[in-house]
Amino acid sequence: MGEQLQSTPICGRHRALNALMAPFGGWDMPIQYEGIIAEHSWCRTSSALFDICHMGEFLFQGDFESDGLEDVFTFSVKTIPVGRSRYGFLLNEQGGIIDDLIIFRLAEDKVMIVVNAATAPKDFAVIKQRLRGGTFTNITDQTGKVDLQGPLSRYVMVELLGEEVATIPYFKFITMNILGVEAIVSRTGYTGELGYEIFIPSEKVCELWDLLLTDERVRPAGLGARDVLRLEVGYSLYGSDIDEETTPLEAGLESFVNFDKAFIGKDALLRLKGQGTTRKKVAFEVSGRRSPRHHYDISAGGENIGSVTSGVFSPMLGKGIGIGFVTPERAVVGTPLTISHERVSMEAVVCELPFFKDGSVRS
């Protein structure tokens, strides 16, 4: 018996477009339409539309400090200005990453928490268990989400949805009327390009999808292109690059941890800071067009020093790129590496992130 996959409201549209569908985080999701490279290129040059309805959304309303929400995450909730969002982590007692997420400050006493699809049920249970009060609701089933990403996305959004979209700064959002209902439009994304995430009641998300696709500058893109886009700009993928066995310190994500506040997992991270990590995230470029893959071995000087967690062929660089974990002394920029698996072997060199630096994300 195969796993019972969940479907987004837009699933029928994907099949009508002959999308290649595959399981992702327990959901039946589009991997590609016309092709990963073509969809990647369209997002980097025009405007690509992604179905992200599989993500989880929770609402919390109450006093952030007395009800316990302030101590749940690696960042402060109470200092997020209304109308802005913040990225960070939900950790276990050992400092491992249960999930990476974004919190949107909707009002003085209200936030929306956006989490990854595969971890959503556990996230909800963990957060609820840590709270001392307030109202905490899972609104995933009632919430649709699409992302419009690419350098032309602002023009498309303004023409189809309204002038107010043009003024949204990076990592800020507004609430506006779309198709007769209240929706959240956020200047965020996962591609390294100018873009928007739109949260709208699930019963309206297909109508919004259809509306956006009426613009000739917009084409649908699948999770295949999304993976290449996010890796080119060095964003981590939960379940591959970060997980419950990985801490933010090992993953090079300490900047999203506020050690000036209390949070679950803080003591473990402080101990790790004191003793030093035994592995460290590393980015590397391959000297050729071959793609490194998840779980490929990383070696240096004939010694196995780690493994690849994400790898693709980068159309923007014209070569293979990847990230993985190695012993700290081998994570220095310029260090030569060998990436191998069975009879496949490729030479690589440690480099800095992001791989691709010319995206329109802050335009």
Structural commentary:
This protein is α+β, with helices and mostly antiparallel strands and 363 residues long. Among the domains are: 137 residues, Probable tRNA modification gtpase trme, domain 1 (Gyrase A, domain 2, 2-Layer Sandwich); 74 residues, Aminomethyltransferase beta-barrel domains (Elongation Factor Tu (Ef-tu), domain 3, Beta Barrel), CATH 2.40.30.110. Helices cover 18% and strands 35% of the residues. It has seven helices and 20 strands. The chain has a six-stranded mixed β-sheet with strand order 11-12-13-10-4-14. It has a six-stranded antiparallel β-barrel with strand order 15-18-17-16-19-20. Strand 19 and strand 20 form a beta hairpin. Helix 2 packs across helix 6. The longest helix has 11 residues.
Helix fraction, binned, reads 10-25%
Radius of gyration equals 21 Å
Total number of strands = 20
Average pLDDT, all residues: 97
> Separation of termini?
48 Å
Tell me the CATH architecture of the domain at 6-51 and 142-232. Answer: 2-Layer Sandwich
Helical segment tally?
A: 7
The main pleated sheet reads as:
6 strands, mixed
Low-confidence stretches: none
Which overall shape is indicated by the principal axes computed on the Cα atoms?
globular
Per CATH, what is the topology of the domain at 6-51 and 142-232?
A: Gyrase A, domain 2
What percent strand? Answer: 25-35%
Give the strand order of the largest sheet, numbering strands 1, 2, ... along the chain. Answer: 11-12-13-10-4-14
Order of helices and strands: EHEEHEEEEEHEEHEEEHEHHEEEEEE
Give the CATH H-level superfamily of the domain at 6-51 and 142-232.
Answer: Probable tRNA modification gtpase trme, domain 1
**Category from helices, strands and their pairing:** alpha+beta
